[in-house]
Amino acid sequence: MIETATVRGSRSFVPGDRLAAVGAGLDLDGTPASARRTWLRGRPGLTWWSEILLLAALYGIYSLVRNSVGDVSAIAFENATSILRFEDAWDLALERGLNDWVQGSGALAAVVALHYATLHFLVTPAVLIWLYRRRRADYRVVSGALMATTAVALLGFYLMPTAPPRLMRSEDFVDVMSQTASWGWWPTSGAPASDAISNQFAAMPSLHCAWALWCGIVLAVMVRRTWVRVIGVLYPLSTFFVVMGSGNHFLLDVVAGAALLLVVGGAVVLGARQLQRRVSAAA
Description:
Elements: H1 18-23, H2 33-38, H3 48-66, H4 73-89, H5 94-103, H6 106-134, H7 136-159, H8 176-179, H9 192-197, H10 207-222, H11 226-245, H12 251-282
Helix pairs in contact: 3-7, 6-7, 6-10, 6-11, 7-10, 7-12, 10-11, 10-12
């Protein structure tokens, strides 16, 4: 004989009967469905402006640490040379051909420069806003995966400062951002205005690519519209192309950034799921 269960006075349902459980507002284990995600929602008084302030503060701390590594130019060029020599030895230096192709076409160089200078600063905040408004129950964990990845990347900038390909003039790389700076709003790479806002030797791992991949995964997995999912797949791929074609990253920088997100972000998500199970079991 199958017994029925009642939780907090709600109507009974037969364990294992999915329709009855959903109709009663319960999960299959008898836990109120809303309770399973309460711990993810954060404090009840959380507001959009407090989230903006929190993210701004975290980004400010990240920028401060990222740009305060001191004079590491010598070791940064040594690391860049080692990376390029490794790639050349294994025929992996895709950035050579991509950079030649991009800098040789005025139209393509313009598209790449605009992509590099704009989408990185627009798409990530837009995805965070969408998560906060439409997937509030998942926001804390998913955004936490991005923040944890960013924090761990700081160790890479500290332990392995790396010059980007565009600074290795002896290897015939062309700085596409400098090539297009005459009509763009971005400062010439390496100029005082550029150095003031960005550490030129924070190339390994590529957070530009890690953030783009995070956006792509969120859009591809959590949005229902097919065309948005397609964008979710294309955006990180186009970013990988842009950062190498513009001379800002080596292939290994891109791989390291993607791997960092998958490992650290994946650990955050799996840890959250484990905690969710424990909370549900204790409820």
